[in-house]
Each structure stands twice: as C-alpha cells, then as structure tokens.
Amino acid sequence: MEVALQVQDITVRYGGFTALDQIRLELARHTTLGLVGESGSGKSTLARVIAGLITPDEGQLLLGAEPLGKKRSKAQHKQIQMIFQNPDSSLNPRHTVRQILAEALLFHRIVERSQVERRSKELLSRVQLDAKSLDRYPHEFSGGQRQRIAIARALSVEPSLLIADEPTSALDVSVQRSVLELFHTLQAELNLTMLFISHDLGVIHAVSDTVAVMRQGQLVEVNSKDEFFVRPQHEYSRELLSAVPKMPQY
Amino acid sequence: MTIQPVLELEELTLAAPSTEILVNSISFSLERGESLGLVGESGSGKSLTLRAILGLLPRGVEQTGGVVRSKVSSAMVFQDPRGALDPLCPVVKQLTEVVYYRQRTSLKAARRIALELLERLGLPASLKTKDRYPGQLSGGQCQRVVIALALACKPGILLCDEPTTALDVTVQRQIIDTITSLQQELGFAMVFVTHNLAIAANLCSRLVVMKQGRIIEQGETHSLLRHPAEAYTQMLMDSVLPLPELEGGGVSWK
C-alpha cells in the first residue's frame, strides 16, 4: 500500500508541557485515519503540525517521498487542506461563496479565470448545495450548509491529504448525520486520503478505515477499524469504548 | 392512593416580545423520585422549559400562558460548568456560601457540610486544606462542584441542562454514574435535558420528545423507543451512531 504521509517522531513542547511526544504514524493513500482522544490529548496539535500551522520541535514529516520542511512551498501548502470544527470562524463573513471559492481556485491556479464559475458550481454540487448559493454570504446558511461550503473550499484546490478537525462536533445530530453521509460519498467518489479527528467514537466508526488513539500527547494504539472496535489492544481504548452511551437493544 | 406529582406543567407557553412563540402549550408531570428525559435538537425549547420551571427565564422571554405547579424546590446543573461558577471565588468558599444561605446554618457548620458534599462528589481531599479556584480544576471536577452547589439547596427536583455535553466521554460516564447514585441515595426527582437519546434512555424512566417548541411525543422510555410514533423520534434514535459490541465486554450501563 502506498503511503501518503509519514509522521516521524514528532515532538511539540509548549514551554515545559509536552503536547506531542514522539508521534510516529503512517497514513496510507486513499484511506481515512480516524484520530480519537479526549480533550488535551494532542489531536488538534498533531493536525496543525501536519497542516504546517505549528512547527514541531523535533521529528519530520514526509508527504509521499517529499520531506515537509519548516518553510513550505505554495505547492506543498496546496497539498494539505484542513476543515475546522467551527465553519463560522473558518469562512470569511464578508466574502460571498463565489469569492471564497474563486480565491482558492485562482491562488493555486487550479483553473483559468474564465472557468472559475463553472468549477465553483461543480464544487457546490459535489457538496450538495444549490448553484444559487454562489452569491450568498456565509451567515445566510445554516451551520451544516456552512460546513459544506468549508468542505467545498478545502476540496477546490485538489489536495492530496484532507484534514478534518472535529467537523461535525458543532452541528445538531440530524445535521451531523447528513454531513457524515457527505464524507462517505466524497470518500467513494474522489478516493480521498483523510485524517479525521473526533472525540466521538460513533463518528470515528462511521468514517475511518484505521483508528489511532491519543492520550496525553502520546499515541496509545493504531489499529484497523474492525479490530479496534471489537478487540482494542490498549486498556485505555477499552475504557473509552465502554464509556460510550449506547441505545438499549430490543 | 394516587401519587401526587412534585411538578406539573400545564399548557405552558413561552414567547419573545416579537410575539414569536418559543414553547407552545406543553404539558407534563413529574413524580417523586422520577427521572424524566427531555430530548430534542437545538431550538426545540428544552432549555427554556427548564428555565421556566426554575423561574429564571432569560431577559425578553415571557410566560404567556399555562401554569407551572411545583410543591418542592428545584436546582439546576448547567451545561458549561466554568460559566456557572464564579471564576474569582475559590470553590469551597462558593459552596460554603450557598450552604450558609440556603440551609441557614452557622458559617462553621456550612463549611463542614460543604466539605462533606465535595468529598461525596469525589473531589480531591486536598481541598480541605487548600481551597482552589475553578480555573485550577478540570472540567469534570468543575461540573462536580456545580452539582454540589445544586444539591446544597436540598432540591426536590434536580434540573440538568446537558450537564455532560461539554465533557469527555469517560468523564461523562463518571458524572452520570455520580448523579444516578446520588439520586438513589437522596431521592430527588430529575428532569434531564439532552440531545443524546442514548444517555436519556439509560438514565430516565420517561421521555418527552420536543421539536420546535412543541412536545411531539411522550411516554415510558422503553415502550416509546420500541414503537416511536413520530419520524422525528426515530431520527433521534438513528442519530446515535452504532458501535459494534466489545469483545470480552466493557462495564455495561445500568
């Protein structure tokens, strides 16, 4: 299996606090790695290191065969895109959807200027939004629709790795479900390689091929989804899994 | 002999001055020691209903119809524990104050009762010698302090507004176990608001399903979940994402 991303002994310290402790992880192409852990376990820090938003103190990242240095090139930035928990703060409120998508498409020269409109409409239909949405502002949409716009923006530059950091945690349960279904469709249609972060084990089960568990800055377990949810290796994983409230079975 | 309910809501209607109706003619009752789950998505009016029971409606929202009848006092546990505590006052001092005013004891006795409560809720014994500010405690510990504050009022009804939504899953489990055992011990009734039907199903004997300010369905938990009459209830049930059974089993929920 081809490796899309290698995380090699990444360490991040904030003052005396070790946020990430020698993380070693591989992400296979066209698969989704679900990263779980409680708050403060270092999930988001790891995502930010991979996205290039935090420079690690030690260790290195390889995207394919290419090392990702301290200063990344524009092309390297393009390769890794991120979807954040809260679409309200990740979309510019003063830009229309047209501007939001066009900016990304033109900056990374994905299409010619004359093709921007057509491509933007394609992207919206990918995330199941109406083409009429182009001239509206983020606040005119519901939370779930805004997250769809954020997904369209991330996909617009054709990244080789998509990082989703708790993309459904701020949404209502019914909306969460429809956004998860969208991720499913996109995985199948676009063959995405994805790092999907969530504290919700139900969500992780729904989207992942492989599951990685973090605790206090360390990687506790990496396992295939089918193994992890039935036979977790680590005691902590078992503790997490048995704490999830379940519906009674009839 | 019929059991007297400790709380009755009759056609309660809440509205904002723009004449927008937020909670529309809802009725339910609660018996002594009973746990009632109030479930629905955001905007369904769950939290406003709780606030109406407590008599603490947010500014601009008024009760425009119906009655809330309650024979006993109620106390509330909020979703965000840090927001519910005074960040500038150490926690033992905060709790002592509540005990002092609500139980009308001497200050010395109030402090003793406060420490006992905190110990019972599983907070570190070091608080006895060194008081700490909310910012120096974890989210789960803060929520325990908030529960202690509510219990210090000796409520007949404990109102819980998504008390575990802001917490990690293992902490959520501990808090719910704590609430359950305290309820068995102290016998208060409870209204538990949540959007997570799995928690409500494990904790409550009766469920009320709300959508856009109305009650669309209510009944005994197990019969309601076995035969939901409304598509919305079914949707809430489906939104609890399934997990496969753990081999060797975990510690099961009560």
Shape of chain B: globular
Order of helices and strands of chain B: EEEHEEHHHHEHEHEEHH
Q: What class, by secondary structure content of chain A?
A: alpha/beta
CATH architecture of the domain at 3-71 and 78-90 and 160-242 in chain A: 3-Layer(aba) Sandwich
Helix fraction bin of chain A: 25-40%
Query: What oligomeric state do these chains adopt?
Result: heterodimer
Order of SSEs of chain A, N→C?
EEEHEEHEHHHHEHEHEEHH
Give the proportion of residues in helices of chain B.
Answer: 25-40%
Spatial extent as radius of gyration of chain B: 19 Å
How many helix segments of chain A? 10
Question: Cα distance, first to last residue of chain B?
Answer: 30 Å
Give the tally of β-strands of chain B: 9
- Characterize the largest beta sheet of chain A: strand count, sense, and whether it forms a barrel: 6 strands, mixed
Domain ABC transporter (chain B): 7-237
Protein name (chain B): ABC-type glutathione transport system ATPase component
InterPro entries (chain B): AAA+_ATPase (IPR003593), ABC_Ni/Peptide_Import (IPR050388), ABC_transporter-like_ATP-bd (IPR003439), ABC_transporter-like_CS (IPR017871), P-loop_NTPase (IPR027417)
Subcellular location (chain B): Cell membrane
Overview of the structural elements:
The complex is a heterodimer of chains A (250) and B (254). Chain A is an alpha/beta fold. Chain A has a domain at 3-71 and 78-90 and 160-242: P-loop containing nucleotide triphosphate hydrolases (Rossmann fold), CATH 3.40.50.300. Helices cover 38% and strands 26% of the residues of chain A. Chain A has helices spanning 43-51, 74-79, 87-90, 97-107, 116-126, 143-156, 173-190, 201-207, 225-230, 235-243; strands spanning 3-14, 17-28, 32-36, 58-63, 66-68, 80-83, 161-165, 194-197, 210-215, 218-224. In chain A, the strands form 2 sheets. In chain A, strands 6-7-8-3-9-10 form a 6-stranded mixed sheet, with helices on both faces. In chain A, strands 2-1-4-5 form a 4-stranded antiparallel sheet, with helices on one face. In chain A, strand 4 and strand 5 form a beta hairpin. The termini of chain A are far apart. The mean pLDDT of chain A is 93. With 254 residues, chain B is of the alpha/beta class. Helices cover 37% and strands 25% of the residues of chain B. Chain B is built from 9 helices and 9 strands. In chain B, a hairpin with a 2-residue loop joins strand 8 (206-211) and strand 9 (214-220). In chain B, helix 3 runs parallel beside helix 5. The A-B interface holds A 38-39, 172-174, 176-177, 199-203, 205-206, 229-232, 238-248, 250 and B 41-42, 139, 168-173, 176, 195-199, 201-202, 222, 225-226, 235-253. Chain A: Residues 5-241 form the ABC transporter domain.
